[in-house]
Amino acid sequence: MYEDYFSIDDILSTQERIRCQLLVDIPKLGFLESSSATATLNDEKKDHADEQNFSSLTANTKLELPYWMIYSICNCKTRFASLPELPLIYSRIQRQIFAADASVVDLAKQAAHFYRQGRHLLELNFDEKRQVAMTLLQTYQQRFRSIMDASFHLILSSDHHHHESMKQQTGKFERQEKILLMLGQAAFRDYDRLVNNETKQMLPPKIQGMTTDLTNVLNGGMNRKRKR
Amino acid sequence: MDIDEVQYLSENELISVVPNFKHPEINLIRGSVGPFLPLVPLQVPMWMAIHLKESHRCRFVCPEWLTFDSVQELLRQEQQQETFTPMPNPYVFILSQTIMNVALEDIPNGDQIRLLMKDLWDLRLAKLRSSIGNLARSGALYAKVTHLTQVEICLIRNFLKTSLKHIAQLQDAVPDE
What is the spatial distance between Cα B79 and Cα B125, in angstroms, rounded to a whole number? Predict the structure, then answer.
């Protein structure tokens, strides 16, 4: 399910907080109840813990925990918690918006890891699993066409007018879609090099750690020598 | 395969040239290139032809698929069919580019052929885009496409691979009921 331990995309997409509901009493973790949106379990909580030291979390309290924790406690044999509601982007209202027209939704702002997070969520048990899965698939298929159009048009950085309109379109793509865009554009950039006859040019190797200014100075110095 | 590799491989294709010098047979690893006699056309690999041309030792003979009429015929066929038409050579676009760069004067109507080639390329690219779009939208497992040149395959390979992977992952995640 996870890509690999160090995958940045996985780390970012699994640290979003999700609301869950406890099914059993948990002793000694009463301080968790006040931690909803702020960073949890840091030093100030430890001070509180001296007072609420041995209070327990009662069943049916709602907590917001990051996904990676919920995966462990919702799926093991003795289930500590269940998932009463999904994050907002996967709710029924949003799903209807996606069904109507998926390409206008600004995924970069609302959920930059929409697909990956959705796939992680589908590992848990909740009621509307099939609908969420179908929404994910159909959203991707609908947005695919605009990704393809954007990536197959090579826009030079000097062409400001087109640049702006492209930025507007691609500003709505989330992370996975942006990666796809980069791949397509890289392929077309290569083809452009072929057409402009640049593939046979010998370029100086990129020297690690040197800025382009320094390499220009180097090249300029060499040219001066030859003129003598 | 990079576009650089495809270009490298395309230079292995044979082409007819007319040398203006005399030289006995040259034995290469891949085969031998016949004895060079002035004004006698013979087939050489492309890389050798480019080298000879740039040192002014030969003249190119226009290959049959690069004449104005045959390119026009190709374009017409491509416009009629919805699927891709077979190309005379798997490296048509690269080779035509290379030949134009090196030996423009040897090809009659060179500029017009260049324009026709560009039209052909744009047409095939448009067909590619619509067929990829259909593939993604329908969510089919595979699609069969024939008669694509190496350059086009090279262009869409990375993009198509990654996007199909994403679609497959999302499809797998749908629970069966």
Answer: 12
Question: Does the beta carbon of B80 lie under 8 angstroms from any beta carbon of chain A?
Answer: no
Cβ separation of B136 and A141 shorter than 8 Å? yes
Domains identified in chain A and CATH numbers = 17-86 (no CATH), 87-206 (1.20.58.2050)
Question: CATH classification of B8-61 is 3.40.5.50, yes or no?
Answer: yes
Virtual torsion, Cα B70, B146, B134, B119, nearest 10 deg: -20
Same CATH fold assignment for domains B8-61 and B64-172? no
Q: Which residues 75-114 of A have a C-beta within 8 angstroms of B?
A: none
A140: nearest CB among B2, B156, B167: B167
pLDDT tens, position by position, for chain B (177 residues)? Answer: 788 888 889 989 998 999 999 999 999 888 889 899 999 999 999 999 999 988 998 888 888 888 888 889 989 999 998 888 888 888 888 888 888 888 777 677 888 888 888 899 889 988 888 888 888 888 777 788 888 888 888 888 888 888 888 888 888 888 875
Architecture of the B64-172 domain? Up-down Bundle (1.20)
Closest approach of A35 to chain B, Cα-based (Å): 32
Sheet strands (E) in chain B: 14-19, 26-27, 32-33, 42-45, 58-60
Q: Does B164 touch chain A (CB under 8 A)?
A: no
* 0.90 exceeded by pTM: no
Residue ranges covered by each domain of chain B: 8-61, 64-172
Length of chain B: 177
- Whether B37 and chain A come into contact, CB under 8 Å, resolves to no
Torsion of CA B125, B140, A169, A139, to 10 degrees: 170
